């Protein structure tokens, strides 16, 4: 007899089986300047022909242009 607690959501089953949900090919969009994977729906910035994941933008601006961010007290 299968109990309700033994059932698993289909998305969880897929993650356990494949490591991701959906089609891997459509989710992967390449890598950014730092080699970080870019997935579908990620926010990016473009500097000429360089692609930077938004999460890496502050690091990129510092390493390439020497720009720093500060909070004014």
Low-confidence stretches: none
Q: Main beta sheet: strand number and arrangement?
A: 2 strands, antiparallel
- What is the end-to-end distance? 63 Å
Count of individual beta strands:
4
- C-alpha geometry: elongated
Please write out the topology.
Layout: H1 10-18, H2 24-27, E1 28-31, E2 37-39, E3 44-47, E4 50-53, H3 57-65
Antiparallel strand pairs: 1-2, 3-4
What does this structure look like?
There is one protein chain. The radius of gyration is 19 Å and the shape is elongated. The relative contact order is 0.11. Strands 1-2 form a two-stranded antiparallel sheet. The protein has a domain at 21-65. The chain has 73 residues and is α+β, with helices and mostly antiparallel strands. It contains three helices and four strands. Helix content is 30%, strand content 21%.
């Amino acid at each position: 007899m299968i109990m309700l607690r033994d059932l698993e959501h289909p998305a969880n089953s897929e993650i356990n089986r494949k490591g991701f949900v959906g089609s891997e090919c459509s989710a992967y969009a390449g890598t950014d300047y730092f080699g970080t994977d870019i997935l579908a729906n990620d926010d990016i910035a473009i500097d000429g022909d360089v692609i930077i994941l938004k999460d890496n933008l502050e690091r990129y601006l510092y390493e390439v242009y020497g720009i720093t961010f500060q909070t004014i007290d």
